[in-house]
Amino acid sequence: TLSLTARAATLAQARAQAYAAARLITWPEGFYRTDIAAKAMEA
To answer: What is the predicted pLDDT for the residue at 1?
Structure first.
C-alpha cells in the first residue's frame, strides 16, 4: 500500500496535484483509484 497526499488552496487543485503525482509512480500491476474526492467535488 502506498499513500499519497497533496495540499493546495482548493480541493480541486489538491486533487489535481495528487493525481499528477500518482501518474509519476509506476510498478508492476500497479493502479490507483480515480474517484478520490469525487463526491466532495460534486458538492
So the answer is: 82
Buried/exposed 13-34: b ≥16 CB within 10 Å, e otherwise: eebeebbeebeeeeeeeeeeee
State the Cα–Cα distance between residues 8 and 13, nearest whole angstrom: 6
Cell of 20: 499528477
Question: H or E stretch including 23?
Answer: helix 11-23
- Per the document, the length of the chain is 43
HSE value, Cβ hemisphere, 13 Å, CA-based, for 26: 1
Residues of the chain with pLDDT under 70: none
Please say whether the beta carbons of 21 and 4 come within 8 A.
yes
